[in-house]
Amino acid sequence: MDARELTSPSIEASLEAEIQATARHLFSLIDDARPSLLSQERWQQEMMDWAMADERLKVELFRFVDVFPTLRSSREIARHLREYFSQPGVEPPGALRAALGAAGPRSPLLPAATRVIRREMLSFAHRFIVGDDARSALSELRRLRDRGVGFTLDLLGEASVSESEAAAYQRRYLELLDDLCAAAAAWPAVPAIDQASWGPLPRVNVSIKVTSLDSQIDPLDFRGSVDAVKDALRPVVRKAVETGAFVNLDLEQFRYRDLTYTVFTELLDEPEFRAFDQAGVVVQAYLRDAGDDLQALTGWARARGRVVTVRLVKGAYWDYETVLAEQEGWPAPVFTHKPDSDANFERLARTMLESADVIRPAFASHNVRSLAAAVATARRLGLPDDGFEIQMLHGMGDQVKAAVLAMGLRLREYAPVGEVIPGMAYFVRRLLENTANESFLRGAFADGAGVDELITPPAPSADHDAPPRRLPVVEPTDPAAPGPFENQPHADFARVENRTKHLKALRRVADRLPLEAPLLIDGRDRRTPGRLASLDPARPARAVGTVCVAGPADVADAVAAASAAFPAWRDAPARERAGVLFRAAQIMRGELAELAALETCEAAKGIREADADVCEAIDFLEYYGREALRLDPPRRVGHAPGEVNQYFYQPRGVAAVIAPWNFPLAILTGMASAALVAGNTVVMKPAEQTPLVGAQLARILRAAGAPAGTVNLLQGLGEDVGEALVVHPEVALIAFTGSRAVGLHIMQRAAERPGRSWIKKVIAELGGKNAIIVDADADLDVAVLEVVGSAFGYQGQKCSACSRVIVLEPAFDEFVARLVEATRSLRIGPPDDPASRLGPVVSAEARATIREYVARGEREAKPALATPEPESGWPDGGYYVGPHIFTDVAPGAVIAQEEIFGPVLAVLKAHDLDEALVIANGTSYALTGGLISRSPAAIARCRHEFRVGNLYINRGITGAMVERHPFGGFAMSGVGSKAGGPDYLLQFLEPRVVTENTLRRGFAPPPEDDVGE
Ligand SMILES: Cc1cc2nc3c(=O)[nH]c(=O)nc-3n(C[C@H](O)[C@H](O)[C@H](O)COP(=O)(O)OP(=O)(O)OC[C@H]3O[C@@H](n4cnc5c(N)ncnc54)[C@H](O)[C@@H]3O)c2cc1C
User: Fold this and answer.
1) Does pLDDT of 53 surpass 90?
2) DSSP label at 250?
3) What percent of the chain lies above the pLDDT cut of 90?
4) What is the mean pLDDT of residues 158-162?
5) Nearest CA to 333 among 429, 218, 254?
6) Active site residue 765
7) Lowest-confidence pick of 136-140, 386-390, 435-439
8) 439 CA to middle of ligand 1, Å?
C-alpha cells in the first residue's frame, strides 16, 4: 500500500479501528494480576502512591531522593529526612512518620533506620540501572537477552563541567565498547533481537549524550561546539565500526537539538563513516517543529543514499522546557497540551514508516496507544514486524514490555549504567515522568483508567498545526495603557536567527569603526577640540572611536540647559515623560544587536552578556516608565472628615548621572531614565572607557522625544568632568555607580559644596566582596557551574561577582578539584568570538591592578589555579588576565576582603554553617551572596543571617533582572534603594503633602466628594 492510500477518510477510519484493536490486544496480553506502577516492592510502591496522592509531599520526596546520594552519614540522612518532611504544609503518611520518629537525633534506632532507608533507596535507584559499571552490567544484559530483549546502553552522567570530565566520559565509552563487544561475541544468538528485516543487528548498542562529550558546549558557539563534539565522538564511532556496535545520539534539551543533528549528519558524512549504517538519532515528538526535524533527516539520508535509525520519543524534558521558556519569555518549543504530543508521535511514526527506504524506525514509548498506532500503521503499510522495533526504559512499563514480547515484536531496553550520584538526575526524571498527572503509565497502572479511555485517539488542540512561533514578539508600549511589565527576552542562541543576527551586527559595527560622537547640550550636538579615544580592550591597536571631551564651559552650559529645561519638564504630564522612555525602549529593541556589538567592541563584553546588558537597559526604560505612572497620581492620606490630605511627589531638579563601564548601557540607562521620568533633567557622564556606548543613549533619548535640555551628554575623565558636576551648585541630585573610593569622595564633596539652596542628594551604588557558600549537601554540578559563572563571567568585572567561595569541609576537596578543572576548561579569547568564555579586562590599568592582587594572593594563600601569560603573549596585545583561584585563604586576607574586579577567586573552608556565615558576613560590603544547599534548614537560616542586599539560593549570584530581582546592597556597598525595584524612583523625587481644611462654617463636603483618591 502506498502512503497516499493512508490519507483517505475511510482508510483513516479503518486504520483507527486497527490501532484500537492492536491496543486492546496489547492490553489483553498485560498480566494484570499484579498491577503496579513500577515495582512489586511494597515500600517502593507506597512511595509512588504517596507521591501521586499529594503534590507537596511529592516535591519533598523527590528532593530527598535527589540529595540522598550526597548524604555522607546517618545523622545527615536523618537530618534531611526531618527537614524535608516536617515543613509546614507537608503531611507525611503514617509509615513515613514512623520512620521519622526512628530517625530522631537521639533515637537508639537511628543507625538501623538509616540503614534501612539507604538500602531501600539504593534498591529503588537500581531499578532503573543495569549496573554500576560495564562489568557489573554484563550479567543483567545477558539476562535481558535471555528473555529476548535487546539493549541500548547509556553511561549515566549529564553535562560534564570540565574538559577532563568530558575526556573521562569519552574514555569510558571506548572501554565499554571494547569490553562489551568482546563479551558479546561469546553470547548465544537470539534471532528475535539480532536480526531485522534488513539484516543482522549489532548485539552491542550504545546511546550517547553530546553534552557529556564537551564541557564548553554552547549553541552560541555553534560551529566550535559541533567541531568539538565531533572530535570527541569520532573515536567512539570509529570504535563502533571496528567492533561492530551500534551508536545512537540521544536528544537532550531543546537548546542542543540543532547542534546534535548537525554533529550526527556531519560526522556520518565523513568519508570513513559513509558506509556505516549502524548509527541512530532521536526525534522528539513534543517539539512543535519535530516534523521539520524528521523531514530534514530523511532528506539528508536520501540525498546521501544512506540508511539511519531514528528513535521516536515524546521527549524527557517537558517540565524543564516549559518552565525555562516561561522564565525567559520565549515561545515554548514544546506542545503544552499532552494530546498534541501524542498525536504528533502518531503522525511522525507514520512518516517514519513511510520513509522505511532510509529510516529504520524505533518507537520509544510506554504508552500502549502510541505503540499500537505505530504497530498498526506499520502493518497497514505492509512492513514486516521485524522492520521496526519498540524501545522502553529499563525499570519502567514491565507489563507493557511483556505484552510487546508476547506479540512477537522486537523490544530493546534503554539500559543506563553507572553510579547512583551521577545517575540521580536521570532517576529523578524517571520518577517525575511516572508520577506526572498525564503519564500513560500512571493512568493505566496507578489511577486505574479504563482501556477505552486509554486507547481513544489523542485529540489535538486547535493550534496543533499552527506554525511554531520561534521568537518572542514585543509590541511598543502605549503610555495610556502600558500593560504589565515584562522583561525583554534575552536572545535565545539556540535559534539560528539570533546567532546570525548578533554575529552579523558584530561585523557591521566593526566595519563602521572608528566612530565619532559629539556632546549633547541643550538639544544640540556640540563638537569640542578635546578628544577622548576609546580603544578595543581585545585589540588596543584598534580605535573604537573618539568622543569630544567637555571642558568647564561645556559643563556649565550643560547644567544651565538642564536648569532651564527643568520647570517645563517637571510640569509635563507623567504620561508624556513615560512616553519618552517607552519610545526609547522601542528604538533600543530595533537596534539591539548593534548596541550589543558596540559593547563587545568597546567594553569587551561577550556576545551573550552584551545582549543581556541591552535587554536590561530596555527593562529599566519599561519599568521606570510604568513606575512613574504608578507614582504620579496624588494619594489621599488620613481619613479625618473635613480635611483632605494629598501626598504626591515632585522631582528634585538637575540630576548628574555618573556611570560605570561594566554595564555600559544598562546602568547609565537605569540611572538616567529614572531621573528623567521622575521629572528631573539630566546631565550624563558615561565612563571614560565606554563613551561611545554612552553616546548611544543620549542619541536614543533625543530620538525618543526628550525635549532639548532635558538630556545632556558630557564626556571626559571622572576626575575632571565628573568632579565638576558633583560640585556644581545647580546640581540637585547625583546618581553614581562605581567604586567605593570614588563614591565616598563624591558624598564628601557633595556635602562640602551643597546646591544653591539645597542639600545634594547622592545615590551611590558601590562595590561588593561577594561570597557563595557551598553546603556539604550541595549538588556539586550546580555549585561548580554557578560559581564559575558568577566568578568569571565578564572576567569578574561585576560588582555582583563572586570573589569568595566558602565551602563546607565535607564537600571541600571534591568541589575544589572540580572547580579548578572547570575553570581551566574556559577558553580565553576575544569577546566577539563565540568560543571565548573569558575575554580581556577593560584596560591596561585594570589589568595592572588585578596582577597586583594576584601577586598578593601568591604571598598570602595557595594558588590552586594560575593562568600564566602564554609564551607568545595574548592575542592582539589584548588586556587579558587569565582566571586565578586561591585556596588556604584566611578570612582576613587582602584577597578575601578587598574588591578586585577581575577573575580572581578566593576559596575558604568552613567547618560548619555557623563558621561559613561568620566568614561570609565578615567584610565591610553587603551586596550579593549565594548559597548552594539542599538543606531546607540551611536555606531558612541563610535567608535571615546571610546579610546582603541580594541573596541567591541554588543559582549564580549575578544577572539580576529588573523587577524580578531588584538590585543593590548596603553597608559599604552603597546608599540607595534597589535598582529595578519599587522604591528606586522615590529617590529621584521629593514627597509633598497638601492639607486642605474643607470645613467651612461648620459643614464639610461628604467624603466621596473629596478629591485625591
Ligand atoms: C528507549 C527510550 C529512549 C528515550 N530516549 C530519549 C531521548 O533521547 N531524549 C528524550 O528527550 N527522551 C527520551 N526518552 C523519554 C521519552 O521522551 C518520554 O519522556 C517517555 O518515554 C515518556 O513518554 P511515553 O510515551 O512513554 O508516555 P506518555 O505518558 O504517553 O507521555 C509522557 C510524555 O508526554 C509529554 N507531555 C507530558 N505532558 C505534556 C503536556 N502537557 N503537553 C505536551 N506534552 C506533554 C512528555 O514528553 C512526557 O514525557 C526515551 C524513552 C525511551 C523509552
Assistant:
1) no
2) -
3) 80
4) 81
5) 254
6) yes
7) 435-439
8) 9
CA 73/CA 558 separation, integer angstroms: 68
Confidence of residue 201 (pLDDT cuts 50, 70, 90): very high
Question: Using the 8-state DSSP alphabet, how is residue 827 labeled?
Answer: P
Locate 263 and state its grid cell. Answer: 554533529
C-alpha cell of residue 98: 514512623
pLDDT at 2 over 60: no
What pLDDT does 506 receive?
Answer: 98
> How far apart are the CA of 254 and the centre of ligand 1, in A?
14
- Decide: residue 582, CB within 10 A, 0-12 exposed, 13-18 middle, 19+ buried: buried
pLDDT for the residue numbered 20 = 95
Coil, strand, or helix at residue 168?
Answer: helix
Name the pairing type of β-strands 770-774 and 802-808: parallel
- Distance of alpha carbon 258 from the chain centroid: 18
**Is the beta carbon of 908 within 6 A of some atom in ligand 1?**
no
The Cα–Cα gap between 399 and 401 comes to 5
Query: How is residue 855 annotated by DSSP?
Result: H
pLDDT score of 10: 77
Cell numbers 558576613: residue:
921
Q: What residue type is assigned to position 312 of the chain?
A: L
Measured between alpha carbons, how far is 897 from 857 in angstroms, rounded to an integer? 12
Q: Is there a contact between 667 and 683 (Cβ–Cβ < 8 Å)?
A: no
Is any atom of ligand 1 closer than 6 Å to the C-beta of 286? yes
Considering only CA atoms, which of 503, 502, 607, 603 is closest in space to residue 544? Answer: 603
Residue 390 has pLDDT above 60, yes or no: yes
pLDDT at 1011 over 60: no
Query: Which pLDDT value is given to residue 1?
Result: 46
Which pLDDT score, from 0 to 100, does residue 3 have?
45
Distance in angstroms (rounded) separating the CA atoms of residues 725 and 827? 41
Residue 539 phi/psi, 5-degree rounding, is -145, 80
Q: How confident is the model at residue 1008 (pLDDT cuts 50, 70, 90)?
A: low
What is the gyration radius of the CA atoms in the chain, in angstroms?
32
pLDDT of 929 > 50? The answer is yes
DSSP string, 465-532: TSPPP-S---PPPPTTS--S--PPPPP-TTSHHHHHHHHHHHHHHHHHPSEEE-EEETTEEE--S-EE
Angle at which helix 574-590 crosses helix 592-603, to 10 degrees, equals 80
| pLDDT value of position 340 | 97
Q: Band the pLDDT of 31: cuts 50, 70, 90.
A: low
Taking a C-beta distance cutoff of 8 angstroms, is the pair 125, 423 a contact?
A: yes
pLDDT tens for each residue of 426-478? 778 788 887 887 888 888 877 777 888 889 999 999 888 888 888 999 999 99
Among the listed residues 60, 765, 786, 821, the single catalytic one is: 765
Give the residue whose CA is nearest to atom 24 of ligand 1. 365
With beta carbons less than 8 A apart as the criterion, state whether 712 and 561 touch.
yes
Buried b / exposed e along 99-112 (16+ C-beta atoms within 10 A): bbebbeeeeeebee
N- to C-terminal Cα distance for the chain? Answer: 75
Q: How confident is the model at residue 6 (pLDDT cuts 50, 70, 90)?
A: low
442 lines ligand 1 (CB under 6 A): no
**411 touches 390 (CB < 8 A):** yes
CA distances from 255 to 82, 251, 408, 582, 962 (A): 38, 10, 38, 31, 25
Q: Which residue has the cell 550643560?
A: 558
Quickly list H helices, 604-680. 607-631, 666-677
Instruction: Tell me the CA distances in angstroms from 264 to 152, 219, 388, one per residue in order.
Output: 18, 15, 21
What whole-number distance in Å separates Cα of residue 939 and Cα of residue 943? Answer: 6
Q: Is the CB of 439 under 6 A from ligand 1?
A: yes
Query: Any idea which residue has 513511510 for its cell?
Result: 354
Residue 664, exposed/middle/buried by CB under 10 A (0-12, 13-18, 19+)?
Answer: buried
Does ligand 1 lie within 6 Å of residue 460's CB atom?
no
Per DSSP, the three-state class of 802 is: strand
Phi first, then psi: what are they for 657, rounded to 5°? -115, 115
The reported pLDDT for the residue numbered 11 is 77
